[in-house]
Amino acid sequence: MDNLSDNLALGHFLKEIEQLIVFTRKRLVKGDAGSRRGKGRGISLDFHGHRGYLPGDDIRRVDWKAYSRTGNLYVREYTEERQLQVNIFLDSSASMDFGSPNKWVLARQVALGLSYITLKQGDKLSFYVLNDPIRVIRKQAGGKESFYHLLRQVRELKPAGPTAFSGITGSKLPGSGMTFVISDLFGEGLPEALDHLCSGGQEVAVLHLLSPQETDPGYEGEWKFIDLETGEARPVRLDQRTRAIYRVKVNEYLQNCAAICRRRGVRYVFGSTGQAPVALVAAATGIRR
Fold it and tell me: Is 289 inside any structural domain?
């Protein structure tokens, strides 16, 4: 995303996701005034119902038509509206810089798409880089203008080092909200990280990205596989038999990742780097296109 053509592509992508929203199943308990339905009663335009008048109630909320019919004082109640706190954890470990199409390019684009939607709809955004150590890029940012500051920062990021889910476990997020984890999940400690997020009142979505070369390598013959995060090398001979075994193992790995999420009520979305980013953003937000 460093030249004119990349900027035009980004602009087209943002236009494609313009109508999407970050969907959450939970009503919000905490947060500033906004457009999201909270658990309490507030002063939005979303009418909830009536209750009997109590000393100290705002006289402007008395329903005088109801009084003329019943002779009793009632006040109108409206649904409380709050801002949603959205947290994005983007895996920028060395293993993300792999594949054709490249995992890092797609992950970064999806993360920016979710950030754009969040800020456009008037919610708060915190953006974290998930490697060792974990870093905070933006903290409770608001307003569409914050997106362009974030864009410059994300463009400067370079994948390096190991994945560090322990950084999520040690994080303290600001209240309840919606959290997205965008990663290839090549790291230890994912269950503990999800437990930490869920116990803290977060609704969580995991976007699991892999390249086609990782799910079904089309190689034959003698190869040396090198772990991009540890540098460990392993010689492998690939033929039809070993490739079949590999595909079985990958399928077991994906099923295990999905099960870890499902047991915790976490939305799990698997994505190949060959997929369109707008489809992955829609799936991550819980909206089908």
Answer: no
